[in-house]
Amino acid sequence: MSALLQVRGLKVHFPTPRGVVRAVDGVDLDVNRGETVGLVGESGCGKSTAARGITHLIPPTEGSVVFDGDDVSALDSGGLRALRQRMQMVFQDPYASLDPRMTVLDIVGEPLRNFKLARGSQRRVRVRELLEKVGLDPDFDRRYPHEFSGGQRQRIGVARALAVNPDMILCDEPVSALDVSIQAQIINLLEDLRNEFGLAYLFISHDLAVVRHVADRIAVMYLGRIVEIAPSGELYRDPLHPYTEALLSAVPVPDPEVEARRERIVLTGDVPSPTQEISGCPFRTRCPKEFDRCAVEAPQLVEYRSGHQAACFLHDD
């Protein structure tokens, strides 16, 4: 597989009266063609901001984003428009991401019109095909968003993203606002579409149980930085970073006996403010395994096993 998306040193900072908020503070990430990469971490760690920086919905402060060989930061408005045909987003809140004044035909058909892919009766035919593809009745095309459930609205959002035949979809917490049973339906839909169209996904979530079922590789984010990247199975089986261990210990296990025997890792200490300069490892104020080096030196991502990187001094020889 060749890398479709390459992100290097991505930073997104916001100036405020209290100082500069370092929402994303140096992210390196690759997504290969046809691959699903999960991006996980606590709420507020910078996952969604990173996605918006990658797509240039928010201009990055520093760093480079290369999509299929093109440097996104060097593109003019016309180039960015063409890029967004190939890189789409599905947003977190299906109640806020659809215009309540537009019918489904207009919502899903808008990108077809904007990119001049279909017009008139052809546009409606294409919209009905897309609705059927995501498991909705094509006759729903004349309805408005308030006439649908949350899961149905998210399917409409997926249909809108698919309309322009993208190579990659960034899914920003696409199931967090949905009931568990509906979450499974949307995840299965995304998997089926990936298999059918060869899509690549960057799947953002705070729910490691969800990401485990969809991602080929998982990147763990803390305070705007990626602290561990590994193949999905290996990350769950043998995490290298103490933060990843703590996150995994909080994921419920369906077997009551196993759940009763499991040891939970409860993190203490304070999360540093994103406006303050951090010396050493950003996780050291909460890390149960901190030692002297952590206070003076910031660890970088190092490949300790094939395809398994972590930013932690515990594994240095």
**Terminal residue distance:** 32 Å
Shape: globular
Please give the count of helices: 10
What pattern of helices and strands is seen along the backbone?
A: EEEHEEHEHHHEHEHEEHHHEE
Class inferred from helices and paired strands: alpha/beta
- Annotated CATH architecture: 3-Layer(aba) Sandwich
What is the beta-strand fraction?
15-25%
Strand arrangement, major sheet: 6-7-8-3-9-10-12-11
How are the SSEs ordered, and which strands pair?
Elements: E1 3-16, E2 19-32, E3 36-40, H1 47-54, E4 62-67, E5 70-71, H2 77-86, E6 87-90, H3 104-114, H4 120-133, H5 150-162, E7 168-172, H6 180-197, E8 200-205, H7 208-214, E9 217-222, E10 225-231, H8 232-237, H9 242-249, H10 256-261, E11 302-305, E12 308-310
Parallel strand pairs: 3-8, 3-9, 6-7, 7-8
Antiparallel strand pairs: 1-2, 1-4, 4-5, 9-10, 10-12, 11-12
Helix pairs in contact: 3-4, 3-5, 4-5, 5-6
